[in-house]
Amino acid sequence: MVKKSFVFAFFFLLVAMQFLNAQQFNVLKRSDFDLKGPVKKCVVFTKYGQEQYVFNESGFLLSAATIFSKEDSETVFYKYQQDTLIEKRVEVYTNGRLDKNSSIASFYTYDTIPTTKIKERVMNYDRVFLDQFEYKYDTIGRLSQEIRTNTEGRYQIDVSYQWDTIQGIRNVSYFSDSIPIKKIDSFFKGPQRTIYKVVSTQFAEGLEKNQKVEFFNSKKQLLESQDFYFVVQDSLRVPSLKWSETFLYNPIGNPISQIIKKGVTSQSKKMLYQLDGSPYKNWIKKIITPDNTYTTRRIIYF
Predict the structure, then answer these.
(1) Which residues contact 299 (CB under 8 A, 6 or more apart)?
(2) What is the pLDDT of residue 13?
(3) Full-prediction pTM beyond 0.90?
(4) Dihedral (Cα; 73, 108, 16, 9), 10-degree rounding
(5) Residue 213: which domain range?
(6) N or C, fewer C-beta in 10 Å, the chain?
(7) Is there a domain that residue 295 lies in?
């Protein structure tokens, strides 16, 4: 049976979110799953089984599971100490038995002198060391360096920041051995410094590989996303549009329209929602037309 790599995507999602936000070591919360209010558990029914999410009263994710059958599942467990993540475990069950080679555990330690450092040690359930990540922050709490160490070697990513106060542009660049691997340019406007545009550029061997441009409204809702790849033109590397998509939202913030454009072709989708009747107006059924596909959720509150 072919399974989604749900758990391993989740395993690295925390690192990816923290790394790209470059603010603090983030943990997943209800809002990351399009949930509002004191949600205790959310079950999503899918074609391949169920996805189950459990939260604590502070809104932090306690577990995320994909249930393929009674004997096949993948679950990520999160353990906190005063809302600080100290342990994360990925448990994979196949034919009703724990797969120790695929199951992994991460343990976190924190040091705040002279600046914040977070260390993550990763091993499998046979207690074999796999990876160690160290995240270092500057004096104002921004991620400045990530160091990965394993049996294959030591890898270091350095992060630099620039802020143009006149133009309202923040630049975050990531380097490996002084070679750029990613750059994020965020554009702000107005006295509240509201973000309205983000340009993310990926590099390969120091050259621009692809680029994503995103536009947001004042509610931080994504209005348009454009994907580019780079081509050589007159000896210069210039971005060429690959595809784009635009969104519209209803008054409670759910996307109700999506238009995808690729070359001369265009595809429109509409989203309809059934709400749960609670004051928090979480949706329990989403229908996408003209595909006529739907997703259902069961939500339990504290």
Answers:
(1) 35, 39, 41, 42, 43, 276, 278, 282, 284
(2) 38
(3) no
(4) -10
(5) 160-237
(6) N
(7) yes
Contact, 101 vs 123, CB < 8 A? no
Q: Does an H or E element contain 20, and which?
A: helix 6-21
Q: How far apart, in whole angstroms, are the C-alpha atoms of residue 91 and residue 102?
A: 8
Length of the chain: 302
pLDDT above 70 (res 16): no
Q: What is the pLDDT of residue 14?
A: 39
* Residue 70 three-state SS: coil
pLDDT in tens, 219-234: 999 999 999 999 998 8
Q: Which residue has the tokens 């070591």?
A: 25
Q: How far apart are CA 64 and CA 90, in angstroms?
A: 9
**Token couple for 171:** 């630049």
Per-residue pLDDT, averaged over 193-217, amounts to 96
Count of beta carbons in the 10 Å neighbourhood of residue 246: 16
119, 107 Cβ separation under 8 angstroms: no
Domain count, the chain: 2
Predicted local distance difference test score (pLDDT) of residue 257: 98
Q: Is residue 64 part of a domain?
A: no
Phi, psi of 265, deg, nearest 5? -95, 150
| Dist. CA 69–CA 71, nearest whole Å | 5
DSSP for 150-164, written as a single string: ETTEEEEEEEEEEEE
CB 90 within 8 A of CB 98: no
Region of residue 34 (phi > 0: left; psi between -120 and 50: alpha; otherwise: beta): left
Share of the chain above pLDDT 90, in %: 85
How far is 5 from 134, CA to CA, in rounded Å?
Answer: 25
295 and 266 both lie in a single domain: yes
Q: How far is CA 302 from CA 5, 34, 38, 48, 257, in A?
A: 30, 17, 6, 28, 32
Q: Is residue 92, in this structure, part of any structural domain at all?
A: no
Cis peptide upstream of residue 290 (ω within 30 degrees of 0):
yes
